[in-house]
Design goal:
Helix content is 40%, strand content 15%. It is α+β, with helices and mostly antiparallel strands. The model has no long low-confidence stretch (mean pLDDT 79).
Length: 102
């Protein structure tokens, strides 16, 4: 039998619960925690494209941000759609920006 880490209530009375908190504590936590501000994807990609550098390093094609972060890389000869590259690089850039702020 498992119990909630927060309130001590029973978690798995009728089945297996994968989490450590009961549904009431999860709902309470959602009300308390303000949602993190989301940076619109277009702004991230626009900033990314304005200053990003595409280069060949150690037999690898690398896309780097102005901060020097490696946002995307591939071996020469591998075909990748530009939309896929930009989506992945934008996602990584957004994550790195959030981590840098914390």
């Amino acid at each position: 039998m498992q119990f909630c880490k927060d309130c001590g209530g029973v978690l798995n009375l009728f089945g297996i619960n994968q989490g450590e908190l009961c549904s009431a504590c999860i709902q309470h936590k959602k009300k308390i925690d303000p949602p993190a501000p989301m940076v619109p994807r277009e702004e991230v990609q626009a900033g990314l494209l304005a200053d990003a550098v595409l280069s060949l390093e150690n037999n690898k094609i690398v896309l780097r941000s102005k901060e020097g972060w490696e946002l995307w890389s591939a071996q020469p000869g591998v075909q990748t759609a530009l939309k896929t590259v930009l989506d992945r690089a934008g996602r990584i850039y957004g994550i790195r920006l959030r981590r840098q702020k914390n």
